[in-house]
Amino acid sequence: PTRRSSDLSAQINSQTDLSQLAVDIPGLFEKKSGVPLKVSLKAKQQGMSINLTQSEIKASSTIIKLRGTISEPQAPRLNLNAEFPKIDLANLSQLIPKLRAYKIGGTLTGTAGLSGQYDFKKGIESSPLKFVASIKAQIPEINYSPSPVVAGGAESEGSNQKKKPEPLLPQWPILKEARISADLKVGSIKYGDLVIKKLGAHSLLDHG
Prior knowledge:
- This protein is mainly β.
- It contains three helices and eleven strands; from the N terminus they run E-E-E-E-E-E-E-H-H-E-H-E-E-E.
- It has helices spanning 89-93, 97-100, 123-126; strands at 9-17, 23-25, 29-31, 37-46, 49-59, 62-71, 77-88, 107-117, 129-144, 177-191, 194-207.
- Strand 2 and strand 3 (29-31) form a beta hairpin.
- The radius of gyration is 21 Å and the shape is globular.
- Mean pLDDT is 82; it is low at 154-158.
């Protein structure tokens, strides 16, 4: 007799070294060949559902632990939880282009969860997904130098539009629903000639 997909089961146990792999997602993620990246996966498949029991992603000195379930691969339903015990922000910024200009160091710890259904046609920004995170960061210094303004406000040749001011913070893709709680301690922030010292803040982003 033909077995139904709901009857299928399997144990998944794999370790993959992707250090020699080059990955480039323009503006979001960039890993050059030779940068350490290892994925350890322990999971159980039951029918059309995969239960991640003990999985880790190691990128340089960054460790992310993953648990949760993924079901219905053609229209994936996600219920994933991540824990990052200690992320080196200097190393992380080498993988995320938008962070490099800020010369960020220090550490970040926290937890995050992603739930909902991913729609391949709509993409990550328009899929009905909910992201919840709680993070703590200790940053000795944020140092950012905005691009110099041309004397006299001259525009580049052939351009009739003024250059838009650069954002102080990176512009990240936002999911339809996001709730992020953050406790930040920053030794100093330098933005051009502006200097702010010993900044402590608690912020809450509640979107959607």
